[in-house]
Design goal:
heterodimer, A: elongated, B: Arc Repressor Mutant, subunit A, elongated
């Protein structure tokens, strides 16, 4: 195998980073330029040349992600998700405050109201606002921005929100803030890797909103049912209330969410994404420890946080990578075996 | 307009050129200061084609390698002229302020 054949093969591999339509048109042309620019006897692309090709290819993929995403069903599903997830979190926040008043006596001072008693978070005085007000306000701003279709502003607000609540230290970490952080990671990925919230808003119809509302109620009822019977609740309340009815309601609501989604023929990707959105809440219920007060609500451990954040982070990264990475490595030209291993 | 874009358009102002020709011409125009890499060049060419500032003139196969020649469109020539005039004005203003009396700065 000659040096030039080995070099050509490696250049072709690098050109595989470019989007397929671009390669169809320019592959041979760029290869000719690269080969003409190479030194005599050169066998490998230079480091800077390789970095330049990969960087340019990734930039081109990002630039084209929006325009080509209309043909990808996943992109549309993510566009829908980027709109409904922030609204879902606002609904969950509102319900978090509204629902305890309808619970049996003794179970109400939990969840959002616990954080509502705080006057400062992370050493930052909140003036006349409570931590919960700040959180809910931030969520409403993000929801408003995605509903208005302002992608970059929404992304900026999400980053600010997540950074604030991640670095903030306070007495009882409000579960909603921990959980919403992981949902916002996914939302940010969906905003980047999809045609954007305008497209999502166009695709969403009233059926989505009905399912969304029921999902938010189901999540909060189940959260309350768990919270009122969790180990920490047994410390706070001598006689924890019987929450079996609420547990049953939450199960029925979950069945209704899935059933309605199927009957109304909502996008199956939306169902899957809703599943991803439910994940943090499922974790919260799946990780109670009956023998200690360590749990996601009362006292999250590093293991809880790792389990909570790692999978959503993984999904978010996968969404971003799918937007910028080549779908497959192109077949190399049949130029003989590569002897320079 | 970025300097690389300006230099690519300048390279095409005298006539159509293929990719490697543009790279060598840009290096010559800039006195060796700007050496375009293939990735940067084709990103710029792709964008310039999208914007209608350049177009494909012809294609040739030389030594089994494809050569695609690009040319400046009338819109591209207009844009290059406007940018050159702007840079000239800026340079003149800078020189005037550096040497207000007409002597040595």
């Amino acid at each position: 195998m000659t040096e030039s054949a080995a070099l050509e093969r490696r250049y072709r591999r690098l050109l595989g980073w470019y989007p397929q339509p671009f390669r169809n048109e320019h592959d041979e042309e760029i290869l000719a330029v690269l080969m003409a620019s190479s030194r005599d006897g050169q066998r490998r692309p230079g480091l800077m040349e390789s970095a330049n090709l990969v960087w340019s290819a990734l930039g081109m993929r990002l630039r084209q992600a929006g325009s080509r995403s209309a043909a990808r069903p996943w992109a549309d599903a993510m566009a829908v998700f980027s709109v409904i997830a922030p609204v879902f979190l606002v609904a969950a926040s509102v319900l978090e405050v509204a629902l305890p008043y309808r619970l049996p006596a003794g179970s109400e001072p939990f969840l959002g109201r616990a954080l509502g008693d705080h006057t400062q978070i992370g050493g930052l005085p909140l003036l006349h606002l409570t931590g919960f007000d700040i959180a809910a306000g931030g969520q409403m701003i993000i929801a408003a921005l995605v509903l208005l279709g302002l992608r970059r502003l929404a992304l900026t607000a999400i980053v600010a929100y997540v950074v604030y609540w991640t670095v903030a230290r306070y007495w009882i970490p409000d579960p909603l803030q921990l959980l919403s952080t992981s949902v916002y990671m996914l939302t940010a990925a969906a905003l980047v890797a999809s045609p954007g919230p305008r497209r999502g808003r166009h695709l969403v119809h009233w059926g989505h909103w009905v399912v969304l509302f029921l999902a938010a109620v189901a999540v909060q009822v189940s959260t309350l049912a768990y919270a009122a019977t969790s180990p920490i609740a047994r410390i706070l309340f001598p006689r924890p209330p019987d929450m079996s009815t609420y547990a049953l309601i939450s199960i029925l609501l979950a069945v209704a969410v899935v059933g309605l989604s199927v009957v109304m023929r909502l996008d199956r990707y939306l169902l899957l994404l809703l599943g991803v959105m439910f994940y943090p809440y499922a974790m919260q219920l799946a990780y109670p420890t009956s023998s200690s007060s360590d749990n996601l609500i009362g006292h999250p451990t590093p293991a809880h946080l790792a389990l909570l954040f790692f999978p959503p982070l993984l999904v978010a990264c996968a969404a971003l990578v799918s937007a910028v990475m080549p779908l497959r490595v192109p077949a190399a030209q049949p130029s003989g075996p590569d002897s320079a291993a | 307009m970025q300097e690389a874009t300006f230099l690519i358009l300048t390279a095409l102002a005298a006539g159509s050129q293929h990719g490697y020709g543009i790279i060598t011409d840009v290096a010559e125009i800039s006195g060796g200061r700007v050496r375009l890499r293939a990735g940067t060049l084709y990103t710029a060419l792709d964008r310039l084609r999208e914007d209608g500032l350049i177009g494909v003139d012809r294609e040739e196969v030389v030594d089994n390698r494809l050569r695609r020649y690009y040319r400046l469109t009338p819109q591209g020539a207009q844009r290059l002229a406007a940018e050159a005039a702007r840079l000239q004005d800026n340079a003149a203003a800078a020189l005037t302020r550096l040497n207000p009396a007409g002597g040595v700065a």
